[in-house]
């Protein structure tokens, strides 16, 4: 696996970018979406969706809770390291998102955000439309720091990552009778993919050319959805997994169309459903022992720091054999498995 990866990356070694810190395969990483990729923007806004206190981050650098919904690194942190970055692009709302740090990219993601702005408004987090507005502001600031010529090349060659959709289903559609009475899951998926389509068009219009988008994970296997929606089932909630797979089909065909329509665009939908499902279905094969509950607290309902916090009773002492860190988010160990899969699926973006 390691050797294959190195060969694959050498093959992809087309442009090497030398920025102030290191030699990297892309000049910058620019990220949009939800808690799968939020590195701390929610620390700066009034919402309950925060992960800026222990035990979040207990296995991160300096045991620091940063706002990442994980015990350690996110899958995209690991991907950044694989691409050669020695430090991570800061959350855009933090004071660190200024000066030379902007050259590494920026992270606009906000835990709880969805494709549907209503999802984000319910949780008082940063809607995707606002994340895009912040990105426009970033472009102006980047040009001030780098000069307009270098800024344009960073914008064109940067890797763009988008991870959203889970909150639309779990925190909005399934619990919102106005939505789930008015729309079938299939109709709601089409609605979300419509928003995805315009988002990618806007991003392309602003200069992005290499875009990686995560599929939905097996939402019906999250400890939280099992607890909340799985009353009659012992394993994953199959109707919810079916909805996720239908969404994934739609977003894949939308991406295929976008790739044809938009000049110079490379877009990849990263399949996170299958690798995570495999891990949950057969944890022992990859050295895990627990795939049904998260490490933090009881591991069944804790999604926000309100419930997963330093006083949570029963938090496991070592998360390395847990697929889930809390009731929704994968552990760093599981993120490593996901990151291995992401980098292989994403070769086309960096070559
Ligand atoms: C957790 O367990 C793994 C082995 O399963 C070990 O390598 C690691 O050091 C442990 N971490 C802590 C913080 O105890």
From TrEMBL:
Keyword Transferase: no
Keywords: Signal
Leader peptide range in chain numbering: 1-20
Transmembrane segments: none
GO MF annotation terms: hydrolase activity, acting on ester bonds
Domain of life: Eukaryota
CDD domains for this protein: SGNH_plant_lipase_like (cd01837)
Pfam families according to UniProt: Lipase_GDSL (PF00657)
PANTHER family: GDSL ESTERASE/LIPASE EXL3, GDSL ESTERASE_LIPASE APG
Similarity comment text for this entry: Belongs to the 'GDSL' lipolytic enzyme family.
UniProt name for this protein: GDSL esterase/lipase APG
Originating organism: Erythranthe guttata (Yellow monkey flower)
